[in-house]
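User: I'll paste a sequence; please echo it back and then give the predicted structure.

Assistant: Echoing your sequence first, then the prediction.
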Amino acid sequence: MKDYYEILGVQKGATLEDIKKAYRRLAHKHHPDKGGDASRFKEVAEAYQILSDTDKRAQYDKFGRVFEGAPGVGGAGGFQWGWGGGAPHEHDSEEFSEGFDFDIGEIFEDFFGGRGEKDTKSGKDIEVEIVIPLEATVKGKEEIINLSKFITCARCQGVGAEPATKVKECFSCRGQGQVQQIKRTVFGSFTKVGLCPECKGEGLIPEHPCNVCKGEGRIKGDDAIKVKIPAGVDSNQILKIIGKGDVGRRKGKVGDLYIRVFVKPHNVFKRKGDDLYVKMPILFSQAGLGDEIEAATIEGTKILLTIPPGIESGRVLRVTGKGIPHFSGLGRGNMLVEIEVVTPTKLTKEQKELLERLKNEGM
């Protein structure tokens, strides 16, 4: 007779937490996916199923076995673990996955070939990159994006069947779009309900597939898409255009287009957030006496900039509302002008005399 405490390596008075820890350690060690022994793994699971259940453990401790009305654990029918036969107590699957380095989904993936059926009808999303100049972020810009993608077949209009022919019920799944498969493993037999491989889950098959698209309802083609790039967009920002990705199979859902924007550096203006920074050289005399000078904006227009007397290099003047528009459409950033006082390097005789006089005046 099996000693379940010995199998798990715990004492008879072990707590439920001790039993859980022992089970996790041994199940991980002997899991077939990890190169372990399947029979040993099954034995560990059997011991855990008994000792983790209060009633079954009490029976086992008293009689050395578990008495159940139907064939099952400890009965004449033999042990049936997990999903293979009988109904495991409610917390079996949760306890099995908790605290492991592997996911219980790995077992389903091995048995069933995946963690869920993929949508084979919908079109895929497409992502492209575009580069725009900094000036385009002020007023926005229209771009023509040329894509090579799945488009609707013109011959069958996306149905997948030759014109004037019928679309019939799939013989394999009887129009259900799903079929059942039974797999037998060391843990028992498992029933899988999945997409019908014949009709790809649609339940219908063209009687005479389209000669152009071969029943797909779509073909590879070129598409020129006009896109409005909004004002205020910044580098690495992604714009989503709904319904401009790949066309789906046989009128399936159309994917979306994602546009990743990159803004080219400007040779004069530097963008920081929605503010624009620019350096403005001025003459030595303008710095001392003050002046009004013309300054160019990002749009290419000119504004008058007041230079206060006695300004020093590095001083920043703020021009409100002449930066980049906010992406929300409300307001704009500012233009920040850094003053650079230019020291003359080549002087005429008269200029030298004037500077000499200023020097003598203490300036």
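Residues 210 and 336 are 63 Å apart (CA to CA). The chain has nine helices and 15 strands.
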